[in-house]
Structures are given as C-alpha cells and as structure tokens.
Design goal:
CATH class of the largest domain: Alpha Beta
Shape: elongated
Oligomer: single chain
Distance between the termini: 85 Å
Number of helices: 13
Helix content: 25-40%
Number of domains: 2
CATH topology of the largest domain: Alkaline Phosphatase, subunit A
Radius of gyration: 27 Å
C-alpha cells in the first residue's frame, strides 16, 4: 500500500512522509497539525514584530504612515479575537476597597409591592387605588425605620423575610421614590439610561460601572465581571470586562488535552514583543488560568447554604446560580471589584398576584433567597461586599385589573456587609402628590448609585461626579459612620 504524503509546507523541512512522524497514523496527524500551528504562530509573532517596527519608525518620523500601521494592527487584532482573550490594561496587583455588585431587575419592579409606606395619609391613598390583596401586611420584624430626624416608616414584603437577620444587623436598607427626569416609561430607553448613567449623548455610550473602574484603578482581569452570556451595557467601555455564565465557561476551545500547552505557547508567542497586545494576552491568560484552577475543584458553599432551593445546586436556572458563581470567584481570590447580575420577569401588567403569594411575590422571594444564600456563603468576607438592586422604573400607584402599569419612582435595595445608616434611606414626601399617577422622584437614581459607590470604595465627590456626566452629584448618607 502506498503511504500517504502531504505537502511539505505542513511538515518539518527534513520530513516529507507523514507516517515517519509516528507509528500510529492518528498521532502522526496530530504531530503534523501541531507543527503547522507552531509555524502559523511564528508567522503571527513575526507580523507583530514588524508592526512594532513600523510604529517606532512612524514615531521617529521615518516615513511610515499612521494609516499603514493601523491597518496592519487591526488585521492582527481581528485574527486574535478568535482566541477569546480579554483586552485589558489592568495590572495584576489586588487592590483594596471591596466589591460592588449591581443586580438589575428587568421589566420595572413594582416598588410598592416590596416596601409600602405606613403613614396614615399614604395608607389612605393606597386604600383608594389598590385592592387589599396587593397590600403588604404589617410584620413586627419587617418594619423599616428611617434615620434620625425622619418620621416615615415602611412595611417590608414578607417575600424578603429570608433577609430578616441582615435587616436586624443593619446590613439591609431600602431607598424609595428613586428615579431620574431622563427616564421614560419605555423599557428600552429607561434600561439604557440606567446602565449608562445618563443618556447616550451624555455618556458616549459608555456604561457607568466601566467609568467607575477608572476611579478604582488597576486590578486583575476579573476586576469587572458580568454574570451572563452577554456583557451588560453598564460594563461596556474601555476597561475590558468579562462576561461569564459560569467560572468553567472561560476556556480555550478545542481538545482539552492541548489546552495547557496551547496557552503556554501563546504566552511565549506574545511575550517580549513590546506591543500593547502583550499586556492584553497576558491578562487573558491569567484570567484563563484562574478560572481553570477554580473550575478544577467542585465548589462547595458554606454549610447549610442552598442557592437554588428546590433545584439541584448546578441547575443553571434562576438568579441563585449567578450568585453561586460570584461567591466562587470572590472566595477563590479572583479580586472582583465590580460585578453585575440580571434578573428578568418584573413587567407585571397582569397576573401580578397578591402581597403574600403569586407571580411577583415568588420572584421577590427567589431574589431574597439568593441574596441570603450569597451573604451566608461569604461569611466574614461579606464585610467587603455591597449589593445594590435596582430596576428601570417603578409601576403606577393605581392598580389596573390584576396588575400595575409602567410608572416612575421605584426602590433601590442595598445589602451590605458594611453597615448601613438605617433600614430606610433617602427622602420620602408621601403619596399625596403624585407625578401623573406615579410615585414621585424623591431621590435621584444616580445620586443613589454614586453615594453607594462613594461609601463602598471611599471615593471623593469629584471621582463620583466623573462617573455620571452632565449632572451635578449630590451625595446622600448610606453607610453608618
């Protein structure tokens, strides 16, 4: 039988016969492929060195045009995109200040179904426009009390009863009447503005959490992480955030047997090339190594912690799984500074349910259970973690059949291992004067976000103001002094 011969361009110069590479045909093919990949990598490295030379010549005024260099660099970067590496300018020193997690509730959560004012005048308004099944019952251990000098009190939905220990420990707070004049009743427009920190024209399309990373300084490749299959708008920008559905999802494609050698080959390929891509690839490979190290060991939450009640712990459904992955990163030492989680299903025009049962109650109960599991799992490490939960807008005060329609002022929830000033934060002016049937804006959304960021990371007012362009930042007390 005639032995197979392949093009010598795919084999070492001294070998023209595929079979001479190994006795087993399969091994011979793998060795030939490895040689071909090495040759291809060598060509890419040579191209990067050429680009570096071109850049130096251009800077020295030796006649190479910026256009020629940029076109060449763009072609190389496009080729590298298939390797899943993260482009980041971060160094790898851990930075102090803790972690901020933004949970976004898509659909417009009905704030009055989460916390309800108990002042007689507010109760009178609600009695006129909401049926009793939607009203939050009074529970002695689920009352929210404002700080000194304020008289308003609120009742908390029993859906959040799992968080009662953290309410009692001054680690849980709520801010009512939160909105911004630039938010409409359009899901798309309001969600976009909430994640950008303003209108696209004001922000240049950059997410507010990516702008926050500028103030926090360098960190690991995991310093900003979106838990999910796509990067949220709030993390879009210049700082190279990661989007992960799970820790194990960050990996090189292809046969697992060759992932380690491939990563090392790429690291060598992009080391010592004196080009910005060197840092980018190093960041991506370090993130890859951390993820693989964490994924290699089955994560076991703290004793008694169940992120997905009624489901298997590895069930990808539900917000609990997202918190499971975040705990894995934080406890694993990935040095997460900013992270996001999304939870949908809050557009309750109909079949909203009652204050103690039904669709919305069950969504809130699932969220509360996940938050409780997360903080229980973190244990003492929760002192360095703050979670803020928001939505694009609230619902109208008046009930419409079995649900509520798009409104304005909503609620921001703060769960923080750094103690809060009181369980009820911000201003509240009551329901006697509504905003075209909606809860009025008593607390600006971006002042709330900014004040939480300022307290969590000990930022200056000027640093926070740069995160939210085209408006004046007015801080408000959030954390205990």
């Amino acid at each position: 039988m005639e032995r197979p011969v392949i093009d010598s361009g795919w084999l070492p110069p001294d070998c023209r016969d595929l079979r001479s590479l190994a006795d087993d045909p399969g091994d011979a093919i793998l060795r030939a492929e490895a040689y071909a990949v090495a040759e291809e990598n060598r060509a890419v490295r040579d191209r990067l060195r050429e680009l570096n030379t071109l850049e130096e010549e251009q800077q020295d005024g030796r006649g190479v045009s910026r256009r020629r260099f940029v076109v060449g660099a763009a072609a190389t970067v496009t080729a590298l995109a298939t390797t899943q590496f993260v482009s980041t300018r971060a160094s790898f020193a851990a930075t102090p200040g803790g972690t901020l997690i933004h949970v976004f509730l898509f659909g417009g959560m009905d704030g009055l179904s989460l916390i309800e004012p108990s002042a007689a005048a507010d109760v009178a308004v609600l009695n006129d426009v909401r049926e009793n099944p939607l009203r939050i019952p009074t529970a002695a251990d689920l009352k929210l009390s404002p700080g000194p000098g304020a008289a308003s009190t609120f009742n908390l939905s029993t859906a959040f009863a799992p968080l009662q220990p953290y309410l009692a420990a001054n680690e849980l707070a709520f801010i009512p009447g939160v909105s911004d004049p630039r938010l409409s009743r359009s899901h798309f427009q309001a969600t976009d503005a909430c994640n950008l920190g303003g209108l696209p024209a004001d922000t240049g399309g950059r997410g507010f959490l990516d702008s926050l990373i500028d103030a926090l300084g360098p960190g690991t490749a995991f310093r900003s992480v979106g838990i999910g299959t796509t990067l949220p708008r709030s993390l879009v920008g210049t700082n190279g955030a990661l989007a992960l559905s799970s820790v194990g999802s960050l990996s090189l494609r292809g046969d697992a047997r060759f992932q380690g050698p491939t990563a090392e080959a790429i690291r060598g390929l992009f080391t010592g090339i004196n080009h910005p891509l060197e840092d980018s690839v190093a960041a991506g490979l370090d993130a890859l190594a951390t993820a693989q190290q964490l994924a290699a060991v089955e994560y076991a939450p703290a004793a008694g912690v169940n992120y997905t009640p009624g489901r298997e712990v590895n069930d990808p459904r539900g917000v609990g799984r997202s918190f499971f992955e975040l705990a894995r990163l934080i406890k694993g030492g990935a040095n997460v500074r900013v992270a996001t989680i999304g939870m949908g299903g809050y557009d309750t025009h109909e079949d909203q349910g009652t204050a103690t049962n039904g669709y919305l109650y069950n969504r809130l109960r699932e969220l509360a259970a996940a938050l409780r599991a997360f903080f229980d799992d973190l244990g003492p490490q929760r002192q360095d973690v703050t979670v803020m939960v928001s939505t694009e807008f609230g619902r109208r005060v008046a009930q419409n059949g079995g649900g509520t329609d798009h409104g304005h002022g909503s609620v921001v929830t703060v769960l923080s291992g750094k103690p809060v000033a009181s369980s009820l934060l911000g201003n509240w002016g009551g329901l006697q004067q509504l905003d075209n049937g909606d809860v009025r804006e008593f607390n600006n959304l971006f002042d709330v976000f900014g004040s939480i960021m300022k307290g969590r990371f000990e930022l200056t007012d000027a640093e926070v103001a740069r995160v939210f362009p085209s408006r004046t930042f007015t801080p408000m007390p959030v954390f205990a002094t």
